[in-house]
Design goal:
It contains 15 helices and 18 strands. It has helices at about 10-15, 20-30, 35-55, 55-60, 70-75, 75-85, 100-105, 120-130, 145, 180-190, 205-210, 280-285, 290-295, 330-335, 350-360, and strands spanning about 90-95, 110-115, 140, 155-160, 160, 175, 195-200, 215-220, 225-235, 240-250, 255-260, 275-280, 300, 305-310, 315-325, 340-345, 360-375, 380-385. It starts with 7 loop residues before the first helix and ends with a strand.
């Protein structure tokens, strides 16, 4: 940390240049004798990254920022706030603390939070920021795995990062650092509850094969974009686990939970009056067969993850009124197809790009076309109007 960065005049310069061109700024050089322009540029870029993702940090004075990569990799305040509601007890250790966003929100629920960060420079930055944010969190510049060796906690939280050499390959937790697979017994010896955050890239079946005592999996999306998977391990848990899907939107949160071990028999139907498309968290969960019995609606086909009903219901995803169902034949398409439309394909042999090129359909407008397959094998187009929330 360079304390001079926190000088009021330097901070004012950073704020005044949030929208400046960084390349031009670097070429001009630093207006401050003891501060390198590259350090100023790093603060400007990182603070700008934090504006929407970390508004609490952005609007707090004298916050010191690490590289923008650290900001990009950290949890958002939205997802950190969600996971903080899943913990309880007196003590929690964040074993891979990073920029400290998760620890900050955990401290709103847990009295004693311990932040471990092996990068000494980042640990000092985080300790300074916690002081400016007026929160009491214990910071340690060491490996969290080593730091808890002779201690016990109510909750352990870990966000392992994928090792560089594993990129581009199938995602396994054993390819991450710290390796939670080799350490999971060690962790569960020191707590009852372990929460593991992983990338949405991790296949649920792979995680379930690698981890023990999984009590729940939370699939967290923000505005229909899956951001993270949360694996809750409980030392005393034996039996079925629950999958919980969450889609956090600006004014509401869509939630849907199910036990994947309970067999659900889906009912099938041709398109009725309304069409439902599950949100991204549900799509990641694979809970397609549980939806019909839970919401009392029908599925279009076993491999078509679209649903229909005669009566409009609340649903965790997009809802549409079906204006028309058209057979996917050259003759029928020419009679109705529009020049512009929003296109979605589900269980269909052609991609969106192929369809646009083939039928000369530009993107946009208020018309929604679903190219899909029904339970009798028939290929159809559903022309729909989107129903606003």
């Amino acid at each position: 940390m360079y304390k001079d960065i926190l000088n009021p005049k330097v901070q004012e310069f950073i704020v005044n240049n949030l929208n400046s061109n960084i390349v031009d700024l670097i070429l001009k050089g630093s207006p401050f004798e003891d501060i390198d322009i590259r350090d100023l540029a790093e603060q400007i870029e990182s603070k700008k990254k934090a504006e929407k993702k970390l508004p609490t940090w952005f609007h707090t004075k004298k916050i010191y920022y690490p590289s923008k990569v650290s900001i990009e990799q950290t949890s958002s305040e939205v997802t950190a706030a969600y996971k903080s509601k899943l913990v309880s007890g007196e003590t929690l250790a964040d074993l891979t603390g990073g920029f400290g966003v998760d620890s900050y929100y955990f401290s709103k629920q847990i009295k004693n939070v311990f932040h471990f960060e092996i990068d000494e420079k980042l640990s000092k930055i985080v300790a300074h920021n916690f002081n400016e944010l007026n929160v009491n969190i214990y910071c340690f510049a060491e490996s969290g795995i080593e730091g808890i060796k002779d201690k016990s906690f109510d909750v352990l939280y870990i966000d392992p990062s994928r090792r560089h050499e594993a990129k581009g390959k199938v995602f396994y937790l054993s390819n991450c650092e710290p390796n939670v697979i080799t350490h999971q017994d060690y962790l569960l010896d020191r707590t009852t509850t372990v929460m593991i955050k992983t990338s949405p890239m991790l296949d649920l079946s792979i995680g379930l094969r690698e981890l023990k005592h999984v009590a729940a999996i939370h699939i967290v999306a923000v505005n229909n974009d899956v951001k993270e998977l949360l694996w809750i391990l409980n030392r005393n848990h034996i039996g079925n686990y629950v999958i919980k899907t969450i889609n956090i939107k600006e004014n509401t949160t869509e939630e849907f939970s199910f036990d994947p071990k309970i067999k659900a028999d889906a009912t099938f139907s041709d398109p009725k009056s309304y069409l439902y498309e599950p949100n991204a968290a549900i799509m990641k969960s694979g809970g397609f067969e549980a939806i019909p019995s839970y919401f009392k609606i029908d599925k279009l086909d076993k491999n078509t993850h679209l649903y229909t009903s005669d009566t409009l219901i609340d649903f965790p995803g997009r809802r549409f009124f079906i204006e028309k169902t058209v057979s996917y034949t050259k003759k029928d398409i020419k009679l109705f197809i529009s020049n512009t439309a929003n296109i979605t394909t589900r269980n269909f042999p052609e991609s969106v790009e192929q369809i646009r090129k083939k039928w000369k359909i530009a993107e946009g407008g208020n018309n929604y076309l679903f190219f899909t397959t029904l339970s009798n094998g028939k290929k159809v187009i559903l022309e729909c109007t989107k129903i606003k929330p």
